Amino acid sequence: MRNRTIHSAHLGCDMHYRVYGKSGLPLLAFPTQDGMCNQWEDFGMVDLLEDYIRDGRVMLFTVDTIDRISWSTSRVSVQVRSRRAENYSLFIEEELLPVITKLSKARCRPLVLGCSLGATHSANVLMRRPDLFSGMIGLSGAYDASYFTKGRMNELWEQNSTVHFLPSLGSDDTRVELLRRRSIVLCVGGARDEQIEQDATALLDRALSDKGIEHWTDRWGEEVCHDWIWWKPQLRYFLPFVLDEIENREL
Prior knowledge:
The chain is of the alpha/beta class. The protein has one domain: Rossmann fold (3-Layer(aba) Sandwich). It contains eleven helices and eight strands. The chain has helices spanning about 40, 45-50, 50-55, 80-105, 115-130, 145-150, 155-160, 160-165, 175-180, 195-210, 230-250, and strands at about 1-10, 15-20, 25-30, 60-65, 110-115, 135-140, 185-190, 215-220. Strand 1 (about 1-10) and strand 2 (about 15-20) form a beta hairpin. The mean pLDDT is about 95.
């Protein structure tokens, strides 16, 4: 594991990320709400992927968020929060991604993945810039930003709310065609504490289907709740399928 720091001009601050492995398909993992780059290691997700990392099949990158001053806070206006959320997406797309590309030296675009709000971030960056990423695995994502703003939205929030952004794309938008060539997995549990995520996943599932974008939406059983104990087996279940698909398509 290597700890690294990058200064973000978009955010006006230093951001931290961690690197695990030396070769393989780059995986960019977002933490859950308010989490930082250490979270995936602290909750055992890095150990879960140890064999993939050791064998050089994947190279894992984990990154900080600024959720506490954007998605999570109610102390500033929606306008300020949405600008911060937009700048975070730009940081990922324009500042962190070139570093990942340089360090990994991989021929494949990175796969983005995350749980809870980490899945939301994954969907945002993929749908906004499918030219930059090979796909996503989203576990228990709340893909509707209006949940975080009590329904108050503006244009920037809609650019970071997948269920608002995706339906707005015209049939001639090149992003739609690119998304049809990406690997997309959405998974959600059936427990009561996943109701918001169930609703958001259903909305995103419908939006993808309406655009003719192939994807895999999977709802697990009623005992499957919003917790790492389920996200771990979900990731191990879906990752082999997605890696095979990406490698067969891009290599």
